[in-house]
Amino acid sequence: MSAGPGRPAAASDWVGRARTVMPGGVSSPVRAFDAVGMTPLFAGRGEGARIFDDAGCGYLDYVLSWGPLILGHAAPPVVEAVTRAARDGMSFGACHTREVELAERLVAWVPGVEMVRFVNSGTEATMSAVRLARAATGRDLILKFQGCYHGHADGFLVVAGSGVATLSLPDSPGVPGAVSALTLTVPYNDLEAVDAILAEHGSRLAAVIVEPVAGNAGLIPPRAGFLEGLRARCDRTGALLIFDEVMTGFRVARGGAQERYGVVPDLTTLGKVVGAGLPVAAYAGPRDLMQRVAPEGTVYQAGTLSGNPLGMAAGLAQLAVLERTDPFAELERRTSTLVEGILAAARSRGIPACGTAVGSMWGVYFTEGPVFDFEGARGADTEFFARYYRACFERGLFFAPSAFEAGFVSAAHTDADIAATVAAVGDALDAALDVAG
Ligand code: KE4
Predict the structure, then answer these.
(1) Catalytic residues
(2) Does ligand 1 lie within 6 Å of residue 309's CB atom?
């Protein structure tokens, strides 16, 4: 647990240096801690369920690099595999066996996948999947859901979640109107709104892209029939259904949300867990679609470091442990215990709260709820969340520094860790209430 409240002096020196040479002092906006009124954590190292800052203060980590570390920090099989791979070379810019082996594992695990193309980020995966869908259908429009985040490619920065929602940014400057006009948005879980879009634009719609469990506006599960409804509507109109499983892949089930909910998309994007913390992502789907991708087809997409040997080694090692240990049921039980404990602690103090766990993803909102869409998520008390967040951090808990992010649990989190977290949350809620007066 943390050595105590406040920020070690070391971090504040680094904050100033970082802000001098990097916008906001960060490499990604969600790390800035702006939404919770704090200076950011400067990580020193990670070990299992804990992250340690640059002054050595330890925190139970529920961010886990925003999802990739399903085994926890520095999992020995992953570290050994990457160390071994690094000794043989950092990158080749040539084919090698491990990318084939990892692709074969994804084909075996994910229902809708027959072929895979590796890329270096979730953004690359989703933008490439949309390009492929536009090529396959000859159509231009895409439909996304408000509060969902599919990376920072121009066409996705329209009513997006994650850092865009956290910072209450308007749709990003720099995205031409002609580009954002090609992206239509409707509320998550709202099939009637989808029908209205299809009635007017269905013949021009290339794809519907969706987070099958929305993890970038807190955590919003699909309502019964929502995913099935999207599948039927895409079948009827000829638009392709893209499941953005960058976050849900290997977290809500071994075969992702498409296995958990029994709805198979036309294209799947993967990331995070598949690289075990290294920059690995992929877009994937049936052979007839993926064969359109160059050099077999004419849809161009490329990447200097795609299929990087260290990333492939990390992904293979992490997925091998998941295959051997099958931790998914235990992860969901532990994650549910965490959420139930937090909700009980809030409600016993008269604090409106709702939330849920899906696999090893979780989210809690300070509002009566239930939350079915982005509007509902934005109704939560973000002021109280910031006070609660600071109090939790001072008690040694590292949660996502935003009300519009999902939390995660790793196989390294023990029952004792979960119990200690729930107890610390109770204290933090008292502190947040005291501050509120
Ligand atoms: P990246 O380009 O950040 O690797 O992946 C984009 C992406 C695509 N799809 C989904 C469902 C995602 O959640 C993400 C990225 N997630 C955010 C956190 N919610 C990454 C954290 C960050 O932006 O720093």
Answers:
(1) 149, 244, 272
(2) no
